Amino acid sequence: MVSKNNELKRARATNFSFTEKELLLKYAVENQNILENKESNAVSWKDKNKCWLKIAEQYNSATLGCPRDATSLKLKYEGIKKLLRGSKSELFKTGGGPSKTDYTSTSELEKQLYESIQLSVEGLPSLLDADCRKSQENLQK
């Protein structure tokens, strides 16, 4: 007898290999203008969903591994972005002890993705902050 909870659980797939992750990033970077659109209206959500379906179709036709649906590809993409954001946020934490090791980009595509989300990771630089000003009297001391 199959319980209702087992029906709702999604089937586990294999972990993404490096080449599968690279393939996903390749298609995501190509469609970056749609995926990273900050508008949140019905039209943009519909465009994003269509784009993820197109990426899933391209991805599954190009890989020999486990076929993935658009939802799992989107989750992996969001996870990669979260890793990139988290590594930068560790730099701004205060406290004692040794610093944690940063996540470093393992590929050129991850670096491209980081450059596209850099503003959301680092924020805007403050030109009026007291820490940014270097006056002559501070330099002479």
TrEMBL record:
It comes from the Eukaryota. The keyword Transcription regulation applies. It holds the Pfam family Myb_DNA-bind_5. It comes from Macrosiphum euphorbiae (potato aphid). InterPro entries: Myb_DNA-bind_5. Keywords: Transcription, Transcription regulation. This is Regulatory protein zeste. Residues 12-85 form the Myb/SANT-like DNA-binding domain. Self-associates forming complexes of several hundred monomers. Involved in transvection phenomena (= synapsis-dependent gene expression), where the synaptic pairing of chromosomes carrying genes with which zeste interacts influences the expression of these genes. Zeste binds to DNA and stimulates transcription from a nearby promoter.
